[in-house]
Amino acid sequence: MFIKTVSDVLNKAKINYALVGGYAVALHGAIRGTIDLDFVIALNENQYKCVEKALASIGLVPRLPVSAKEIFQFRDEYIKNRNLVAWSFINHNNPLEVVNIIITHDAKKMKTQTLHVGGMSVKIATIDELVKMKKESGRPQDIEDVKALEKLQ
Asked: What is the DSSP pairing of strand 37-41 with strand 61-62?
């Protein structure tokens, strides 16, 4: 299972992360279909370099030709002037394997909980954190996710 593979490699690399996005919504108990995995990591250059190396070890490469150092150094520029909110990784041998590192948030500032399911251990953003992030986004799917999450509280 792809989510287990990714969470195992992030845990092994000691990445400070939180699973967010559709998978997090679903793991909290809301019905939500998604393919890609979305994570927030700690906002420091070393964590960005470590996540790049960890994801490469399982065959994932950045979708755009930018390195961890560049993403970290030019993060504000990418967000403000290029509307880049996620650093995306893909497995070219299996295009369904996609991981997005959300660069607009800092995992150090997020409340998380660890879930142990299906033989995996994954750090996930709390419902309150997900609701806050999704309200900030304002995308139609995120508004639907907020409604579903609020029903769980």
From this structure: unpaired
